[in-house]
Structure formats: C-alpha cells, structure tokens
Amino acid sequence: MKQVIDEKEGWRAFPPFPLALVTIPGSPPNIITAALIHVFSFDPFLIGVGIAPSRYSYELLKAAKDFVVNIPTKELLDQVMFCGTKSGRDVNKFEKTRLTDIPAKEVEAPLISECPVNFECEITQTLETGDHYWFIGEVKVIHRDVNFSRENTLCYWAGEFRLPGPLIRRR
Predict the structure, then answer these.
(1) Domains, the chain, ranges and CATH?
(2) Could you tell me the pTM of the whole model?
C-alpha cells in the first residue's frame, strides 16, 4: 500500500546525492559544501553544481569562469560541515579548516589537497531552476589519488551524511 505525501516530506524520499567541496576562485578562494551536484553529460564531460542565490558562493560563481569539484572522504566530515555552515563572506575557509589549497592545472580555482579526487571545471552555462541555479562546468582535468576508493566518499540528503552502500552487481 502506498500513500500520497506532500512535497515537504516527499523530497526526503529521494536517494542521497554525492557530496562535494566546491572551490571557487577569489581572494581568498572560497569553499562551499554542495549536495546538489550531478553529472549532466559524459561527452563532453559536464558536472553541474546547484547553488541557491542567497549563498555568497552564488555571487562568486556568477563572476567566475570556473570551479573545482573536490570529493571529500569521511575523514573530512568536520571540514565539510564547517564549509557548509559558515559563509566565505565572513571567514577564510581554507585557513579555518586547515585544508590545503593547491594550484589547478587549467582553471583559477584551487584544488583541495586532502580530497582524493578533484575535477577542474570551466563554466559553460548557468540554468535557473526554481530555488537554485545550476552552474554547469565542462571537466578539463581530473586528479585522482592512486589509492582512491569510493567506499569512504560522502553522500548527503535530508540532513544525513552517508557512505556509498555495498556493490550489488556490475553492469
């Protein structure tokens, strides 16, 4: 038996999203914790980040040409929470979290050294979709630690941090 629920409860039924720390160029560069993040295309490889216009990062992205999607592990949960609850308008998140910014190869936004995967993205379009704008970036360079494992990467939805579940079957 199924019941009909309203939107305020219904969105909680959606599965978790991958979680990312998105870096944006600036002085100082900013970090935002993003739970609205998705692959929009495989060819070309496009990643989109959904940001609410009320966020400081929205202003920065509107003026930027690029961003970096940094994939954090569970060991970075405190930094992820800090970057998701503090505004870059008020605090230098790299200094406060002690995350290490390193220069990217093709974009202005820095990589986060502690994240095992980093996607350098050049903004190709912006889409207004309700209460968020999607900044779509073409992936230019991908960095991955040689010992990378998806098992420790974070997912988030409806106030819950999770890890990816067990592999059920390969295609």
Answers:
(1) 19-157 (2.30.110.10)
(2) 0.93
